Predict the 3D structure of the following.
Amino acid sequence: MRFLSNMAAAALGTLVAFGLLFLVGLFLAFVVSAISMSGNAAPSVGSGTVLTFDLARPIPETPSVDAFDQLAGTRSNYSLMGLTDALDKAATDERIDALWIRVRGFSGLSASSHEVRKALLRFRDSGKPVFASSDDYMMMESTYYLASVADSVFAAPEAMFEFNGFSMKTFFYAGLIEKLDVEPQIIRAGSFKSAVEPYLRRNLSPENEEQLAALLDSYNETFLNAVAESRGTTFEALNELVNRKAIFSAKEALEAGLIDELLYRDGVLKRIKRRLGHAPEAELQTMSLESYGFTPNSEAGRSTNMEGEIAVVYAEGTILNGQSVPGNFFSGAVLGTESLARDMEEARESDQVKAVVLRINSPGGSAAASGAMWEAIRQTAEEKPVIVSMGNVAASGGYWIATAGETILADPISVTGSIGVFAMFFDVGQAFENKLGITTDGVQTSPYADMLSGVRPLGAYERQMLQGWVDEMYDAFIGLVATRRGLDEAAVRSIAQGRVWSGEDALTVGLVDSLGTLQDAIALAADKAGLGEGPWRLRILPRPKTPFEAFSDLLTTKGQAAWTHWTRSPAERQWMDQVRAFAAQARDAGSAQARMPVEIVVR
């Protein structure tokens, strides 16, 4: 008996010890994050500094103060605006001699990387040299897209060079649903509204394949034209390379003119010193672009316009009712109606805010929530200029809310449009009976009282009623776009149908007003408000969380999820991604959705 009690006590002690270690780990993660942020508050920049840009992770719209995200290496603690603003400051700062892009990962070509590339070009046009190097085993197209801006591109002699074009993949669940005896009940408006295709098909429909191919062509053309211009070659020559060989050795990439020299890190340092006129034995003074971003404008030779503020309101994530939830490596971001309304109200009622930039990065979501957000934006637009800036994705419900703005700017490879509506229900009655032996029975006051119970299929008249509801919402969406964009309703119907467009194609069909970056949108907002020359004071909404608030979130919601994430294999994580996607559709079953057809990931 004593042996068993000792064993129990030892087991309990072990669990307590592990719990304490975990809490200590949480605290240390928080401390690292807090110190990192506070340490970058006022950097000291010496003369002759070379800025280093470590291209390791995707570029987020907003910075993360989540210590888990940073320690796991899944999200940067800088933002797109922080990077581009730092590059623009450095271009005028006499203490900055050059920029060194160090390729250490990164994946995915997107509108965000296009904005960073334009900022890199502005820095290079200031006359300061730009270097790029890679110690990694492989340089991919997405990283090369940014690295190709450099005056000199270096790679390690044993490195590989991926140059095989881009692809998109979609997962289909029809086979799984069939095995489970679950029957999806789909009601949709728009021939391209393919958000429901994964639950009906095993492959892409011709319409979906058409729109995705057109979107991918836009990415490919943007990439090849940009690289051709930077490397002094032609689109045709690069396209021939893409189709001839998928993977190059570093030597073959050198022979093809894609890179300039094969060097290890020490060799790269020598080349940089030689170019800048430094003695070979001198230590190169470097500073990360992330740290430099905290440098005041006044120290960089720029004066801030103090006439008023421009509010930059971020609308990021899946559109739902309620509160917004920031994205992290556990789940995607949620854009909530109450949170966006509160941010728009603050921008609208503040005397200091003279104009608003609404930065949208959303694939859509609930149609009703999209309508509520549209109204909050419209109220603000009646009192102050509201300029819409599209990020990587501003589609379906994301495009719905964009129409409330005065002017819409998109990146050439923003994903937008997808004007369509659908509703989806799951009949799990046969799954319960055939797989679990569970049957249902009951009483009701009318023939249709249980139509949304999820345990029987919809009847013909019930489908007809729901189709009328979805069509009515689709017609309202069409009418809204026609009115706000000054287009004929028939013309809107021809470009709607749930089809997605690149920003460049959206400009051609009249869905956006011009192509431009977030910085361009801010400049336009300042011009509309009569604020004069920039840079301007910005009010970022929603207000970023402090490290202390983020730590509180970690303690209350993320400990268990973090442990689960870290102990899963890559295959398990991919499987869980699909489970979450499936669960999200099940969660929204029964509501009208203005959601983009697929998650666009270009690789």
